[in-house]
Amino acid sequence: MKISTKGRYGLTVMIELAKRYCDKPISLKSIANAQNLSEHYLEQIISLLRNAGLVKSIRGAYGGYILTKEPNEISAGEVISALEGSLSPIENIEDENPAQRELWTRVQKAINDVLDHTTLEDLAKLESDDLNGYMFYI
To answer: Which molecular-function annotations from GO does this UniProt entry contain (predicted)?
Structure first.
């Protein structure tokens, strides 16, 4: 199991939106420029996030994207799930012998627990406090 660039960049977009949650809508171009990412690729990703109900677009001269909920109400798990689907460590877990199936089930649960209990607010805070020695413990 690997998180693709789609998942990583999507999380980057969502963290940027979370950091500026109370501000005006943010254009993908400004996020792409700030993060040195392809705006075209971000357009594909934001479409998936919009379809999942995590962001909405605001049209017009001062338009852009905003979160549909507060940053503390959106988990990293929701974002990754919308972009990557299931995060099973292996395919066809039911075909494994009982001991290995138990192991892979526990690994999947641990990953999901971390992602589901880490909010965009947590991640935005981590980025803003990164230079101040803030440590994030799970």
So the answer is: DNA binding; DNA-binding transcription factor activity
